[in-house]
């Protein structure tokens, strides 16, 4: 089991330095089963981050493995120049579960590509290059999606693509407008009007928004937020793009798409990726025919909708339905939220516990009064959790938010194991 190679040295020598890893001593993972994964030293971990909210069905799901193996023997790749039943079966299934009228998809390989496609569609449909995004947003690592990032640490590509204006984030714990919910009357969403009037051509093509900002620290908008935002955009004809790369496929616990099920708002375009194919590369842009079809092409995507990822995606969706994993995300999410809020009363470093379903953030601060960011504590917390054989993620503009986004098959025993390790790791932090 133990690899005799020094993987940190190999990575330093042959991978781009920009490809950062977690932990002082990076972890090399070799195999996994269900919610647990093993490293090259034989240690087993409960994975509460799921390869960045991607391993929807955990590790080694038998149905996905069987479908992919069968498919690999039959047909792996043809490109979008040809049709396959696998691609069409997936497109039909998505049309069936998407909000009414959103019957068309474009398939690609990643969240970044899904967002690029949405931007192209919106720009063409609205004949406008201006775009709105949210402060603290993250939409990918391509040139345009970096320009949509609302965090300076992710905008590190030199001069940015122009024509993007930023709307204040619904980050209630640190309200950018200095207000308090609910007396704020969702002023941050209403601010979109002022941003459009002062910083754009007056008719931006679209506003892109993560339903919950994942990389930004699981920023969780108040219940009315997207309704108020959509109303603010409507007079300008500005489309709303829901980036559900992290929040989609039931993770938020109320339905397949969080903006629709948890916030009751149907966007004009939905983008997703990550969890859709349980770990196989995929990206998808879903919209109504009148928007999809204004974009005439020609447009290809070599691997988009490839038979392997398409089969894995169909099995993933069917398993989510069959095993009622949306309800499980709600149940286990509520359990984790309650347990973490109990711990918040004991540990003054826990500033806020927030999220929906199995998309949870715990913001660490020096103390509740000052709310001073605690990034060093968050880094140490990850190490403490590792010592207790649990993997979690980290986010927030200053790296002080613990991210909990496990596979949707997370069960009662996992939740108990997780909360126990969380409590012990908090207790191990200084202060
Ligand atoms: C909300 C969101 N959008 C887009 C992306 C980009 O996805 P990818 O890394 O697959 O390009 C990410 C990745 O973390 C994301 O969290």
Give a nutshell description of this structure.
The chain has about 425 residues and is of the alpha/beta class.
Write a structural description.
α8 (225-233) links the parallel β7 and β8 (239-243). The model has no long low-confidence stretch (mean pLDDT 96). The protein is of the alpha/beta class and 431 residues long. It starts with 6 loop residues before the first helix and ends with a helix. The protein contains 14 helices and 15 strands. The strands form 3 sheets. A 7-stranded mixed beta sheet has the order 4-10-9-8-7-5-6, with helices on both faces. The protein has a 4-stranded mixed beta sheet with strand order 1-2-3-13. Strands 11-12-15-14 form a 4-stranded antiparallel beta sheet, covered by helices on one side. The chain folds into 2 domains: 7-60 and 325-428, Alpha-Beta Complex (Aspartate Aminotransferase, domain 1); 75-322, Type I PLP-dependent aspartate aminotransferase-like (Major domain) (Aspartate Aminotransferase, domain 2). It has helices spanning 7-14, 50-53, 62-74, 85-97, 111-126, 143-147, 187-199, 225-233, 258-261, 289-292, 307-322, 325-346, 375-387, 412-428; strands at 29-33, 36-39, 44-47, 104-108, 131-134, 164-167, 206-210, 239-243, 269-272, 283-287, 350-356, 359-364, 390-391, 393-395, 401-404. The site of pyridoxal-5'-phosphate has 15 residues, from α5. Residues 52, 110-112, 115, 138-140, 210, 214-215, 243, 245-246, 273 line the site of pyridoxal-5'-phosphate.
